[in-house]
Design brief:
One of its GO terms (molecular function) is isomerase activity. By secondary structure, the protein is α+β, with helices and mostly antiparallel strands. It is about 25% helix and about 40% strand. The chain has a six-stranded mixed beta sheet, with helices on one face.
């Protein structure tokens, strides 16, 4: 990972890194936020591992170029595990399980994008 793709030192930093990298069109930077065998779920799409997550973000960034900043909600941390949450401007939630890596940074192991609020 280059300095440009520095890791999150706290679980709550992941959402901000996601937003910055998505708005920059940085697919590799987005993939670097995930563990190698992470699972990402977005609607009907479930991507497992860096190859599938890379494909998901390559497709997403080809269709969408602007990602509004999400409200970062406090993470719940228990040792080397954390739940992270972000509320998007449309009210949808993003909920993730993050794990502390051996180098002290945090990466997502499970990412559930866009849980829509009840109508």
């Amino acid at each position: 990972m280059t300095d440009h793709h520095h890791g999150a030192r706290e679980p709550r930093e992941l959402a901000g890194l996601f937003n910055a990298r998505a708005n920059a069109g940085d697919v590799e930077g987005l993939v670097a936020l995930y563990e190698p065998e992470a699972v990402l779920a977005a609607g009907d799409v479930v991507a497992t591992g860096h190859t599938e997550i890379r494909r998901f973000y390559t497709d997403l960034l080809a269709r969408k170029s602007e990602f509004p900043a999400a409200e970062e909600l406090p993470a719940i941390v228990n040792g080397d595990l954390a739940l992270t949450f972000a509320r998007l401007p449309n009210g949808s939630l993003s909920v993730e399980a993050a794990r502390r890596q051996t180098d002290g940074t945090w990466r997502w192991a499970i990412d559930q994008l866009k849980i829509k609020p009840k109508a």
